[in-house]
Amino acid sequence: MKSLKILVVLSLLATGVSFAAAEEKPAAPASKQAGCCTKAEKAGEKCTHPCCGEAAKDGNNCEKCKGSGKIEKKEEPKKEKM
Known about the structure:
The chain is mainly alpha-helical.
């Protein structure tokens, strides 16, 4: 009888552990610019890597340089009329 109780308790613990391990991970950011492209943009230039140029033609960030997702278009601040 003791072994049956121990077996039930262990199976319940195993189930609890599996639910705890199955928690959802935070989603990856939808768009991440590669570091080389960020540096070039800050310098006012375009990235010179051919892989980044090919990805940009398709509207994507370069995954080879650790970017991800589609390129987000940055909105420029609106100028006020005086």
